[in-house]
Specification:
Structural class: alpha+beta
Shape: globular
Number of strands: 22
Mean pLDDT: 94
Strand order of the largest sheet: 13-12-9-10-11-14-21-19
Number of helices: 17
Bound molecules: ligand MV4
């Protein structure tokens, strides 16, 4: 194989940085980590071939510090930079600065990032290209009077969105004209504060939509393919929780239409590298362009499993100037994949972040299981960054087998020292609506209003005994020790009380 790059700097942290190190090693490329002060002993640093400190904990001083990262790339002789997701991944100025410094940015051109970064510009471009988008305006609202006129034209409820936003920030649902004035003010000031621009536009609100996104890959020679959809409707506060591919509601005909539309959208943006077109779908299976993500996404592994492709290898090959090694007809979607995002957060306390030291971790494995993790026992989960610990991904011949495997793997997965949302997945995976594929964007809030499934007396006893044994084990050496009188764990306190009975 021709030499792609000799050294790639990974401008990210956590599980995605580990994922990228692995791809580099598979391709015979040296992987360079960068880290902030609290990340000195992070897993991505331990796995990389070289690692460089880039500043203190706050992201603007480290993982978002363009000058520092480029200086590091030059110092270590990296010929390319992979930005991962988040941080600098959709920052056109960074992509441009990489180009100016003679280091290849593994991603699309700065012009494509800029285009898709402005939601109004993107809408105008999609309109020109004949891509269906949510009815609404494609320019910033000039005045309240104009907003009134347009909202009446499209019909309430409407959504006010920040042109520089995305991912739900600065978004306002307006149910009736009486709310429009105050919502517009609020949306504008929120947009100004969050994005430094108060440009706000308006869309008709789609009720109970699904979020279905299409993965595309484009090379730098004008070739573009789609790799099937991901169903991402299970979200909490615009944070995805569980994703799957394929979607239960997408028929082969609809997939073909959405895929061809996604390719059309990518071509209209002169797009290259990996990208994702987000669609909203309504209950009648109409789909509308929402926005384009110009990066590798968190949930990319489910697409890898159903296509058999390695998206990071392909990103690197595309960035090195290679042509796509296949055409649309070569792409076969096979089986079903599900991803659970494991966060350090407390499901019993409104999913509040739960930082702390990982005291133990027993990782699931076995048929059809992939775990992309950024933690290890002894690692300290801080509060400086996103609390994602790992992604548990299952593959099955069909949806039922994928559900059975990921449910089994969730049961094997033990993480102690921090609270995790693993119990939420146990609930989702046996929920009748989830099993039936009834998963629109309102799914999680409906689930949270359902009563907890009853546990029988026998199961409860087993849990109590297990908790009592666990509470008596010294995590340092595995020896039984007396349970301390005061413990922070509600389960341990409960087990002690039960043991006294
Ligand atoms: C919408 C919508 C309904 N109608 N736009 C939320 C995130 C951002 N990317 C767009 N979002 C929405 N835009 C119109 N015209 C509903 C949402 C939405 C949503 C979308 C995807 C996944 C979860 C969601 C939860 C609430 C609202």
């Amino acid at each position: 194989m021709r030499k792609l790059f000799s050294k790639i700097l990974i401008a990210n942290r956590g599980e995605i940085a580990v994922r990228l190190v692995r791809a580099c090693h598979e391709l015979g490329i040296r992987a360079v980590a960068v880290y902030s002060e609290p990340d000195r002993a992070a897993l991505h640093v331990l796995k990389a071939d070289e690692a460089y400190a880039i500043g203190p904990a706050p992201a603007p001083e480290s993982y978002l510090n363009i000058d520092r990262i480029l200086e590091t790339a030059k110092r270590c002789g990296a010929d390319a930079i992979h930005p991962g997701y988040g941080f600098l991944s959709e920052n056109a100025a960074f992509a441009r600065a990489c180009g100016d410094a003679g280091v290849k940015f593994i991603g699309p051109s700065p012009a494509s990032i800029d285009l898709m970064g402005s939601k109004t510009r993107a809408r105008r471009q999609m309109e020109k290209a004949g891509v269906p988008f949510v009815p609404g305006t494609s320019h910033g609202l000039e005045s309240l009077a104009k907003a009134r006129e347009l909202a009446a034209k499209f019909g309430y409820p409407v959504m006010l969105k920040a042109a520089a936003g995305g991912g739900g920030k600065g978004m306002r649902l307006v149910a009736a004209e009486s709310e429009l004035a105050s919502s517009l003010d609020a949306a504008r000031s929120e947009a100004q504060r969050a994005f430094g621009s108060d440009e706000v536009y308006l869309e008709k609100a789609i009720t109970d939509p699904r979020h279905i996104e299409m993965q595309i890959l484009a090379d730098e020679h004008g070739n573009c393919v789609y790799l099937g959809e991901r169903e991402c409707s299970i979200q909490r506060r615009h944070q995805k929780v569980l994703e799957e591919s394929p979607s239960s509601v997408v028929t082969p005909e609809m997939r073909c239409q959405m895929g061809e539309t996604a390719v059309q959208a990518a071509k209209a943006a002169s797009y290259s590298n990996a990208g994702t077109i987000e669609f909203l779908t309504d209950s009648r299976s109409n789909f509308y362009f929402l926005e384009m993500n110009t990066r590798l996404q968190v949930e990319h592994p489910i697409t890898e499993l159903v296509t058999g492709l390695d998206l990071v290898h392909l990103q690197i090959r595309i960035a090195a100037g290679e042509k796509l090694p296949f055409t649309q007809q070569d792409i076969q979607l096979r089986g079903h994949a599900i991803e659970c995002r494991v966060y350090a957060e407390d499901p019993d306390n409104n999913f509040f972040p739960s930082p702390g030291r990982i005291s133990s971790s027993i990782e699931p494995a076995g048929p059809g299981i992939r775990l992309d993790s950024g933690i290890y026992p002894g690692w300290n989960v801080g509060t400086d960054y996103d609390p994602l610990l790992s992604k548990l991904i299952a593959y099955g011949a069909d949806r039922d087998q994928a559900i059975a495997r990921i449910h089994r793997a969730i049961g094997e997965y033990v993480i102690t020292g921090v609270k995790t949302n693993l119990s939420l997945f146990r609930r989702i995976l046996i929920d009748a609506d989830f099993v039936a594929g009834k998963t629109d964007t309102g799914y999680l809030s409906r689930l949270s209003r359902k009563p907890l499934p009853a546990t029988n007396h026998h199961d409860r006893e087993i849990v109590v005994i297990a908790a009592a044994i666990f509470a008596s084990i010294n995590p340092e050496n595995g020896n039984p020790t007396p349970v301390p009188a005061r413990t922070s764990s509600a389960w341990k306190r409960f087990a002690r009380a039960e043991a006294m009975e």
